[in-house]
Design goal:
Blueprint: H1 9-29, H2 35-84, H3 91-108
């Protein structure tokens, strides 16, 4: 019984050429795409691109609005915290309050 014979260089080159020719023939046999179909595909792609662009812009605007709202909330919280702190009177304000109480007491007598 004969064993398996390894293909030689010429056999491998011929097989590669046949495969290449077969692939080229398959490519050539395809019908060309008409211009109307190409235009439809291009229009569809432009619509997809426009939709994606609009979606990105909407997301960007939403993110900016959220950041602005967060910043405003932080500002309001800081103002509320500042307003909630007890006010420390200066020496002049304390003296003016004492003088006003003294004047009111004298006015009552």
């Amino acid at each position: 019984m004969r064993g398996y014979k390894e293909p030689g260089l010429q056999d491998r080159l011929a097989a590669a050429n046949r495969a290449r020719d077969k692939a080229l023939e398959k490519l050539r046999s395809k019908p060309p795409i008409d211009e109307a179909e190409l235009a439809r595909r291009a229009a569809r792609q432009q619509e997809k691109d426009a939709a994606a662009r609009a979606k990105r812009e909407a997301a960007k605007l939403a993110k900016e609005e959220a950041a602005a709202a967060k910043k405003e909330a932080a500002r309001l919280a800081a103002e509320a915290a500042e307003a909630a702190k007890p006010r420390v009177l200066t020496e002049e304000e304390k003296k003016a309050a004492r003088d006003a109480r003294y004047a009111a007491r004298k006015a009552r007598k």
